[in-house]
Known about the structure:
Helix content is 45%, strand content 25%. It is an alpha+beta fold.
Amino acid sequence: MLGKFKTAIVLVIIGAISGFLIWGTNELTNEDILLNRELREQAYYKDIFGLDEAVEITYDSERISDLLEEVIIYDVDSNILGYIYKGIDKNNYGDVVILVGIELSGDISNVIISSSTNTVTYVKNIKDNYLDPFVGQNIDGLEYDSSTGASFTYSSVKKVVKAASSYYLENRGDE
């Protein structure tokens, strides 16, 4: 009985030390993690508008609904390059983060799934086969694929693209 008690105490101590070390490591690296997330997102912003990595951009963001955040992309002279609508949708398989870039002309410059907890093979299929048709479409007459084989992920993409297009037409279309 005493041997089991000692083993339990040792395991509790090991667990406490391990937990403390994990917490400490997380605290020490938290700023780096946040910076890396921001840099990755900026790289997506540049990719959406076909900008070289060396191009400097600035941006302002504002939450405009439960689904969407609007990100205005500026060049170094504070000229608007375009708008990105970041949508986070929850479906039956988890979360999907979609970035929709809209040029000042009202054309979609790109649609990117920046992260997802959906089934990897379904997300890859959508990324590889069903996002490119959005590129170059004007938001006045969007067309969607009707059979993707990954209905939950693509439904999230359609939902965000529709919301971004509607918001742009109502609030930015005459700029």
